[in-house]
Write a structure and sequence with these properties.
The complex is a heterodimer of chains A (329) and B (114). Chain A has 329 residues and is mainly alpha-helical. Chain A folds into 3 domains: 3-67, no CATH class; 77-154; 167-317, no CATH class. In chain A, 71% of the residues lie in helices and 0% in strands. Chain A has 12 helices and no strands. In chain A, helix 1 (3-13) packs antiparallel against helix 2 and helix 7 (167-193) packs antiparallel against helix 8 (216-237). The longest helix of chain A is centred in the first third of the chain and has 34 residues, at 77-110. With 114 residues, chain B is an alpha+beta fold. Chain B is built from 5 helices and 3 strands; from the N terminus they run H-H-E-H-H-E-E-H. Chain B has helices at 2-16, 19-27, 34-43, 50-62, 85-109, and strands spanning 32-33, 66-71, 78-83. Chain B has a 3-stranded antiparallel β-sheet with strand order 1-3-2. In chain B, strand 2 and strand 3 (78-83) form a beta hairpin. Chain B is globular and about 60 Å long. The chains are: A mainly alpha (329), B alpha+beta (114). The A-B interface holds A 26-31, 33-35, 37-38, 56-58, 62-63, 66-67, 69 and B 33-36, 38-39, 49-52, 54-55, 58-59, 70, 76-79.
């Protein structure tokens, strides 16, 4: 036994828990001794025999891991799919939301598009790295502690539904859209004639600036009618790339003036703001105020609506999507 | 062709994976230490690496299929393994299964259709 063997043994046993060292060390020494003896018997000189014996035994840490049944993968097959599913879900949900939120907040508080894009990109990278790192770390720990199940496992109930492309399947969406649009249009009209706040003489104080009736409120009501027509079109014809573009145009036509009016402080009726006693910051936006939060929410919803439209268009136009091979219908 | 050789080697390894356990359990009815066992198996053309065999023996011991004893009489201490009664039982089961598989494969090869 020379220092080379001692170093090999040390390299192996230092990676195993103390309790195992005492019984693994003599076994490894015996194994090396046997391998060296076999080579000496074959006529090799001692130094070369020791060296080639150690080479044949391979990486000492791998040997030690074999001895104590330690996994040599970061995440093995038992958890890989759970890990992949969780990571996909988290990335798809958290990264776009946080990126868009940072963009909006920075843009609205500082008013510089470039800086806001820079901040958003940095955030996207940071969030991606953090989600990747922490969720992987959790699974690496699971892999090593051997918790039997994560609860994320597969079951027949989690199988995805077959894509239903029939018109019937789109009916709930149509009904929801039409109800929402009707309520929305009704609210715009209602706030003008009834409102929730009344002046001293009993007349209603509209929430929205009555001056907007000269153009913008009819514009929004017109858009609502178009949206309703668009919803019917979707019901009849399903999503497609043109539909996604129309959806984008409608969303922009609605959100851009709404956000500009809101952040310019021209959306709310000054009399209404006075009557309910809101501070000027609420009405004008700027900084981390209610104003910018409202704007952020509007832009986020719009962005999601547009993205969702394109996702649905892609799904609908995927080759073979209309006639799933596996069910032959 | 290297890739063909790799493929063959991979399949052979798959096929032989469990046989080392059976060979150890059978051979260690007579107590022996790791390297002697390795050389005995090699003499019978059963190839196994030392860095696979030693952890395997330890695992079998943990499962109660082998018992062990350190022999310190010689210059180098050696751990002698012996097949336990449970190991004997398992060896019989594995061996019977091996024979059954061999018979089945022969019948398949001879063109017998179930």
């Amino acid at each position: 036994m020379t220092t080379l063997t001692d170093r090999y043994v040390w390299a192996a046993v230092r990676t195993v828990p103390d309790t195992h060292r005492a019984d693994i060390e003599p076994e490894i020494r015996e194994m090396i001794g046997g391998a060296v003896d076999a080579r000496l018997a074959a006529g090799e000189d001692p130094a070369a025999a020791e060296r080639s014996a150690l080479l044949q035994l391979g990486d000492p840490e791998r040997l030690a891991a074999d001895y104590v049944d330690r996994p040599l993968t970061l995440i093995g097959p038992r958890y890989y799919l759970d890990w992949l599913r969780l990571l996909r879900t988290l990335l798809a949900v958290v990264v776009p939301i946080s990126t868009a939120a940072v963009f909006l907040v920075q843009f609205l508080s500082q008013g510089e598009v470039g800086a806001a894009i820079g901040g958003a990109v940095t955030t996207a990278l940071n969030v991606t790295v953090h989600i990747g790192f922490w969720s992987t770390l959790v699974f690496v720990i699971l892999e090593r502690t051997g918790v039997p199940g994560t609860g994320l496992g597969w079951s027949p109930d989690t199988l995805p539904a077959l894509p239903d492309r029939s018109r019937h399947a789109r009916l709930p969406e149509l009904v929801a859209s039409l109800v929402f649009l009707a309520v929305f249009a009704g609210a715009i009209l209602w706030q003008q004639v009834r409102s929730v706040v009344n002046a001293d003489d009993g007349s209603a104080i509209p929430l929205l600036d009555p001056a907007l009736w000269s153009f913008w409120l009819p514009w929004f009501l017109g858009l609502i009618v178009l949206e309703a027509g668009f919803a019917v079109w979707l019901y009849l014809r399903d999503w497609s790339w043109p539909a996604a573009v129309v959806n984008l145009a409608l969303a922009l036509a609605f959100a851009v003036p709404a956000v500009l009016l809101w952040s310019g402080g021209r959306l709310l009726n000054p009399a209404f703001v006075d009557a309910v006693g809101w501070g000027p910051a609420v009405a004008t936006g700027g900084g981390w105020t209610v104003g910018s939060i409202v704007t952020a929410v509007v832009v986020l919803i719009t962005a999601w609506d547009v993205v969702d439209g394109f996702l649905k268009a892609r799904r609908a136009s995927a080759p073979g999507a209309r006639q799933p091979v596996l069910v032959g219908r | 062709m290297a890739s063909d050789d790799d493929r063959t080697a991979g399949h052979l390894q798959e096929l032989r994976r469990g046989t080392v356990v059976l060979a150890c359990l059978t051979r260690l009815r007579t107590p022996d230490y790791g390297y002697a066992l390795l050389e005995a198996l090699e003499g019978l053309d059963i190839q196994v690496d030392a860095n696979t065999l030693y952890p395997l023996l330890r695992r079998l011991e943990k499962q109660g299929l082998l018992t062990s004893e350190w022999n310190t009489a010689e210059s180098r201490p050696r751990k002698f393994y012996r097949t336990s009664p449970a190991g004997d039982d398992l060896a019989a089961t594995l061996s019977a299964d091996w024979d059954r598989l061999t018979a089945s494969l022969h019948r398949l090869a001879e063109g017998e259709l179930p």
